[in-house]
Recover the amino acids of this structure.
């Protein structure tokens, strides 16, 4: 995917979350290139930075660069019974209202309810003890 990002942030490997357009974007001639391929709430990683620059009044130096991005992988804890590398899982968050130290891995930011994700890497069953008693594996997801 192609998008535009502030010149100072345009670095290969940078991971960012798209949080939505600013009001000023509504009438911008680059809106389609800059925003239409991105999905609100998702994380992306810059794979390639192009030389092309454009003017953008929103960024500090008023310059944006053209970059190639892809959705970033996300670490999560999932039910061990469905944690097979290469498998596609419908990710539904567990029923849990505990605020434990692993909450962010069970409810990873950037995922949406019932996302279908591919398990890229299974790091195995975790030694992390779930307060609710779930048997969990730490995985890397592509959604």
């Amino acid at each position: 995917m192609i998008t535009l990002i502030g010149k100072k942030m345009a670095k290969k490997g940078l991971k960012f979350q798209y949080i939505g357009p600013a009001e000023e974007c509504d009438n911008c001639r680059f809106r389609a290139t800059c925003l239409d391929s991105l999905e609100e709430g998702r994380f992306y990683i810059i794979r390639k930075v192009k030389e092309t620059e454009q003017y953008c009044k929103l960024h500090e130096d008023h310059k944006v660069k053209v970059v190639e991005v892809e959705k970033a992988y996300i670490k999560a804890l999932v039910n061990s019974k469905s944690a097979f590398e290469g498998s596609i899982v419908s990710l539904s968050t567990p029923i849990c209202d505990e605020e434990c130290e692993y909450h962010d891995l069970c409810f990873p930011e950037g995922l949406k309810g019932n996302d279908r994700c591919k398990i890229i890497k299974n790091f195995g069953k975790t030694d992390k003890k779930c307060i609710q008693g779930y048997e969990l594996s730490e995985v890397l997801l592509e959604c």
About this structure: The longest strand covers residues 43-55. The longest helix spans residues 31-35. DSSP finds two helices and eight strands in the chain.
